[in-house]
């Protein structure tokens, strides 16, 4: 007998919600997707248990080995047995069958456990459905967990849990009960009201610290209200784990609260044009700044700067690539909205863009922190910053510059953050060489003759001449760089002039020659 209740919840998250020691993993992977709960009775005819967690009733110990194998053959992703000895045999059977094995105390009633598991799966399904059109609150919770080094829960204004982060760290009783019941336990909510925590969360934009209460089994927490104007939409909670909170935890929380407000408001008003579409149109210059400002409550006359970020290691697997892109977008969004309240973030192609009003000289530092946070999470990115433009309607210009910076940085992988001012010379040179490459009729055939001569005779006239021009005509410096005698270089230069018919005494001819040599060795 089975009961399919949800599109799926990873077994690891299901165990987190139900909690140990109620259910204890004994064998197998915890990454399987649980889509329902089934009951296996050896006296009944076996049906299909595809994608289900199966409770093995009426058997325990070694006597449950056959039931483990039978449930696995019927598609069970995990089985639950009661403690009763013979655990090694059960583990072996589960591992041979490719299913996970969980154990439960002998006094636990099967009907109670089934009801509990179904409630958790149904709640997860409802939460997933409620956020499907409003952005991924679970992804936001996970991002905040990384940035704060804590365990995150996002609740609505009625203290119902909307999303939570995965946690390999130790969690306290409050977090377990909140996730299990998908709302905060009333006893603790009453204490928070008594301590004035909710009043502070609703009164303004601040991070509230709630000290640990060991006698209640409650660890230290940070909390911030999710607000839209004067309206309280919910709360983000972060529980401290084995490690202390990250240094910038409070700043990350403020940014996350602003993002969560957008997602919750969008869920209430699904007809509103998606924010990302507006920002993408603004970046591409096809949506007016007045339209964007009107929809998002911004000042169209405020100066703005575009920050662009891209991953430098493209995954072969498309799903993994999308996951990393979402992670980058979430981290950029949290930091951008923390840096400037009116920040706009959108993903266009493989790049994530942030439009930052009134950015100041600290923007490169903020970008560097984003790069560092993502690197710690295993995602290597580079950040390019365009020039400040005087109004929102000109951000496409700043976006174009940020793109140029990233294009130039692709050839300097060790550089993590750069502005258009940092790389203006490299960008100008790169675009000039691209122009030469696209227009072969503009090139001097003399350089092509040298390239062909080197290829045919194995000489090094091109690299020698390029080193000479790079050294501004200093023969000794160029020879040192090439690890040859100056006289050897002088001989090569004479040969190059003779073979190609070069006129290096003319500054314009010398510049054109230099550019073509750079293109030839690009």
TrEMBL record:
It holds the Pfam family GGDEF_2. It comes from the Bacteria. Residues 293-407 form the CdaR GGDEF-like domain. Residues 461-518 form the PucR C-terminal helix-turn-helix domain. Belongs to the CdaR family. This is PucR family transcriptional regulator. It comes from Amycolatopsis alkalitolerans.
């Amino acid at each position: 007998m089975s009961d399919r209740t949800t599109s799926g919840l990873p077994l690891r998250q299901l165990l987190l919600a139900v909690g140990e020691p109620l259910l204890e993993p004994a064998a197998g992977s915890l990454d399987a997707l649980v889509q329902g709960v089934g009951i296996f009775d050896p006296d009944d005819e076996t049906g299909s248990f595809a994608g289900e967690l199966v409770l093995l009733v009426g058997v325990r110990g070694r006597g449950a080995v056959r039931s483990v194998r039978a449930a696995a053959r019927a598609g069970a992703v995990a089985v639950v047995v009661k403690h009763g000895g013979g655990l090694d045999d059960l583990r072996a059977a589960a591992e041979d069958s490719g299913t996970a094995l969980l154990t439960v105390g002998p006094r636990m009633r099967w009907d109670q456990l089934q009801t509990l598991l179904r409630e958790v799966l149904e709640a997860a399904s409802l939460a997933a459905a409620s956020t499907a059109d409003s952005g991924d609150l679970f992804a936001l919770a996970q991002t905040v967990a990384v940035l704060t080094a804590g365990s995150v829960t996002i609740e609505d204004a009625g203290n119902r849990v909307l999303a939570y982060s995965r946690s390999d760290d130790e969690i306290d009783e409050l977090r377990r009960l909140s996730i299990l019941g998908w709302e905060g336990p009333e006893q603790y909510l009453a204490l928070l009201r008594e301590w004035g925590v909710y009043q502070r969360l609703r009164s303004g934009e601040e991070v509230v610290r709630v000290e640990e209460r060991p006698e209640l089994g409650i660890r230290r927490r940070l909390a911030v209200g999710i607000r839209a104007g004067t309206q309280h939409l919910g709360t983000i909670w972060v529980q401290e784990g084995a490690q202390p909170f990250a240094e910038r935890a409070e700043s990350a929380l403020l940014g996350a609260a602003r993002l969560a407000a957008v997602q919750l408001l969008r869920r209430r008003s699904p007809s509103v044009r998606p924010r990302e579409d507006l920002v993408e149109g603004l970046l591409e210059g096809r949506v007016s700044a007045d339209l964007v400002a009107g929809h998002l409550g911004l000042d169209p006359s405020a100066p703005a700067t575009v920050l662009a970020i891209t991953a430098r290691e493209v995954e072969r697997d498309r799903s993994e690539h999308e996951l990393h892109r979402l992670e980058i977008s979430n981290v950029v969004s949290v930091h951008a909205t923390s840096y400037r309240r009116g920040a706009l973030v959108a993903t266009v192609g493989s790049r994530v863009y942030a439009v930052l009003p009134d950015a100041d000289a600290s923007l490169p530092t903020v970008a560097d922190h984003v790069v560092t946070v993502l690197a710690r999470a295993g995602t290597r990115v580079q950040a390019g910053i365009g020039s400040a433009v005087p109004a929102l309607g000109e951000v496409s210009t700043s976006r174009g510059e940020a793109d140029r910076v990233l294009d130039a940085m692709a050839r300097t992988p060790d550089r993590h953050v750069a502005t258009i001012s940092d790389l203006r010379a490299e960008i100008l040179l790169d675009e000039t060489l691209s122009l030469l490459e696209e227009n072969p009729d503009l090139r001097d055939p003399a350089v092509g003759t040298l390239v062909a001569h080197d290829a045919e005779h194995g000489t090094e006239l091109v690299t020698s001449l390029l080193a000479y021009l790079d050294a501004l005509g200093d023969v000794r410096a160029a020879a040192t760089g090439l690890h040859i005698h100056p006289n050897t270089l002088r001989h090569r230069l004479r040969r190059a002039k003779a073979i190609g018919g070069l006129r290096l005494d003319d500054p314009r001819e010398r510049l054109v020659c230099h550019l073509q040599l750079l293109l030839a060795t690009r």
